[in-house]
Amino acid sequence: MTVDTHIVSRIETAIYYSHIDALMTLQPEITGALVSTVDGFEIASRLASGVSAAKLSAMTSSLLALAEAMCAEAASGACRDLVIDAEAGRLLLMELPRRTQNLVLAVQCTNKVTLGQVLWAVRSCREELSRRLEVL
Fold first, then answer.
1. Which of 82, 98, 102 is nearest to 39 (CA)?
2. CB–CB of 129/96 below 8 Å?
3. Which structural domains are found in the chain, ordered by start?
4. Helix-helix angle 115-134:10-26, to 10 degrees
5. 109 burial class (0-12, 13-18, 19+ CB within 10 angstroms)?
6. Burial of 1 (C-beta count, 10 Å sphere; 0-12/13-18/19+)
7. Helix (H) or strand (E) segment spanning residue 29
8. DSSP characters for 71-120?
9. Is the distance from CB of 90 to CB of 84 less than 8 angstroms?
10. How far is residue 119 CA from its own chain's centroid?
């Protein structure tokens, strides 16, 4: 399921796609990326075939909510990023600040990439997206 067009404009959606494409070109080990709402609706995605953007959006929303709760309980401050290191790859989940409603940027990569390198690239993408969205 995709997000209601009243929440995100076509121009904004095009910006998400252009940044996802640039990120995946810059980091070939990134195999997929997704922008979704914090309540679990897909906005833009480039995922491998067989990966459901709708399911991933919903799970991303739940995982970030759990991470926020854990950080609050542990008095660690606000949760910024969540990294999942799996047998065949990594998933990075990050809040994407937006004036009207925060979004989530989720990135899937192989386990061959250096974690610091991909974190830097994804954080840079998030910062650039935030700057671009301020003018909309």
1. 102
2. yes
3. 10-134 (3.30.450.30)
4. 160
5. buried
6. exposed
7. none
8. HHHTT--S--EEEEE-SS-EEEEEEE--SSS-EEEEEEE-TTS-HHHHHH
9. yes
10. 12
Token code pair at residue 10: 């076509």
pTM: 0.88
Which of 96, 82, 94, 92 minimizes the C-alpha distance to 129? Answer: 96
Q: Which of 99, 115, 124, 125 is nearest to 29 (CA)?
A: 115
14 to 79, 112, 121: CA distances (angstroms): 27, 30, 20
Q: For residue 49, what are its two tokens?
A: 């075939």
* Per-residue pLDDT tens listing for the chain (136 residues): 555 545 678 999 999 999 999 999 999 999 999 999 999 999 999 999 999 999 999 999 999 989 999 999 999 998 889 999 999 999 999 999 887 888 999 999 999 989 999 999 999 999 999 888 886 6
